[in-house]
Amino acid sequence: MKKLFKSMFVLAAISSSLLFTSCGDKTDDPTTTESAAPTLTVNDGVKTSSASLSVDSIEIKVLASADTDRKIKKLTITRAITGGSTNTIKDATYDAKDVIYTHQDIIAGAIVIDEGSIITYSVTVTDDKGKTANTTYVVTISSMATSGQILIGGPANTTNEYRFLGTSDGFRTYRAGSVGSDLAKDNSAKIDFLYFYNSAGSVQNAIYSPDYGFTSGSGWFTEVSAWPSKNKTMLKLTPDITSSDFDALQGSTFLDEISIVDFTTGTQDRIANLGIGQVFAFKKADGKRGFVLVGNIATSDAGQILLKVKTEL
Predict the structure, then answer these.
(1) Does 9 have pLDDT greater than 80?
(2) Domains in the chain, please, with CATH?
(3) Which of 32, 299, 305, 313 is found 20 to 30 A from 171 (Cα to Cα)?
């Protein structure tokens, strides 16, 4: 009886040991680890952008990586246009841990878009276990930005201290002087126009390019000479465009009209003696073009000018 009891005890101990070992082996077995889906980045993680109606192509940069011991097997890119069709523009097979690919989607002459069209690119990668990753990149067709009414004060205006204008940051205006976060000096790379009123009959309300050569003691010489950069803006009178014409410019009509303006001849770095309802064209240092409508003008250096701007995006 004692031998039988002892044998049963030994068997029970062995069974417990085997059960413990079996459970431990199952938990530590790396083959049971679930692989992760691939990582996918498109256009450095930027999700949205805008493009002009005149855009030639749109770039799609893809960076994909499979999980450890996995490989990317397939890359698919589709393009969908609001009110239009959805098409596969890239469908490729791979057998690689990493995929780096740039696709130039030809737009000009290839697809029909209009002002306000939205192009959605859907990118999907699949690995050798069938796991997928996908993301989208959305492009809005927007050829032109229109400002609200912009008021810029003359050099002696104490209620409107904003003297300079840039088309970036929502058509932001900037102050002269040495104190404040909205100073022209600290934002000179963003400034496209200077406004100055001079009582001289041939100047009065005038818009200048930031690189205008003010002589010592005149205009914005002291202010601008301290700027770290001075953009070159080309200005050109457009007498054939009325204020009504300016208001009617939208999308494709804006692009057609600005394309007619020849900036290789007749440009100025200052347009003086501006009048109400006058329209002039400009070309900025970055190549973007547009029109400015003069609303109201100052009658002295303590007054202000009212402008409205339409510019390429």
Answers:
(1) no
(2) 39-141 (2.60.40.10), 144-312 (no CATH)
(3) 299
